[in-house]
Amino acid sequence: MNKTQHPAEYLFSEGHPLTASMKMKFIPVGENALRVELSAPDSFADRDNTHTHSGFATLLLDTVLGSCAIGKLEKMQPIATIKLTCNHLQKIEVREPIYCLAEWKGEENSVSYVSGEIRRQSNDTVISTAIGTFMIGTASRPLEEKTVNSK
Amino acid sequence: MTTLFDTPVSNWLVAEQLDEKDRFKTTFQNHHLGNIFIKSLHGGVTGAMIELSAEAATRRELGEAADLMITTSSIDYLRVTKDADLHARTSIVRMSRRLSVVDVICWQDSEELPIARGVVTIKVTPPE
Q: A61, A55 in Cβ contact below 8 A?
């Protein structure tokens, strides 16, 4: 992993089957926040073919809020979303430049709490907001151990 | 206007409505993975499927031409997922002139072992 790279950027690299095509740009903001910039992909277009389905915003929020939680881990280990609540205020236009800003709120009892929102890059209008709750560590082995063993 | 299951997003999810009126299915694809090391589904894929299923259930009641806007979703993730198909069953809790509230349960192996549940609120705009 590149030392200037956000830990989640390592996971959601160009080799990741879901995020590879999204060309997400990870920008750490201070100690507790993460900004991810991208253009809304064509592949999530809704019935009108000009806006993405809200499911894309939900998927993006889960990705970025989870990534923000990963950035606060003391050692690399799997996390799992245990709850995600989204409000969708507006629709995203296909290919529109947007960003998702997530802020880590804290961790208690191996549960990490993160909030975030999607906004338009053009005028910062709020598109969607979310609160995510993530379990730190799973029954699975740590990621680094798996990476080494898989080589 | 195309139907919900003939759109880029449903093609990406490989989502379909089954013969049973409240049943939906996503056929597993590699790009649905979140954690590639333990081969679990991305939580957002499950979330997107829950929202899509809730919308489809509402359209089934109101017709394809209904003007709908998904406003909120709240999803509980109940079990670890794996690289397999995802099934969903919807239940309309309340349908008024302006809102549709839909419960969705998702599973992989068995409906008795749900992997997620969600409630989706959809704004319905009455025709002018």
A: no
Q: What is the pLDDT of residue A147?
A: 47
Does A142 contact chain B (CB < 8 Å)?
no
B69/chain A closest Cα distance in angstroms: 8
> Contact A48/B1 with Cβ under 8 angstroms?
yes
Q: Of A18, A78, A84, which is closest to B47 when you measure between CB atoms?
A: A84
Give the DSSP per-residue string, A80-144.
EEEEEEEEE-SPPBTT-EEEEEEEEEEEETTEEEEEEEEEETTT--EEEEEEEEEEE--SSPPHH
Contact A46 B31 (CB under 8 A): no
Read off the pTM: 0.90
Q: Determine the Cα–Cα distance for residues A142 and A139; give it in Å rounded to an integer.
A: 9
Cα angle: A14, vertex B46, B20; to 5 degrees: 135
Whether residue B69 lies within 8 A of chain A, CB to CB, comes out as yes
Which chain B residue is nearest to residue A87, measuring alpha carbons? B72
Which uninterrupted H or E stretch holds A61? helix A54-71
The parts of chain B modelled with pLDDT lower than 50 are none
Q: Quick one: tokens of B64?
A: 């394809």
- A116 to chain B, closest Cα gap in Å: 14
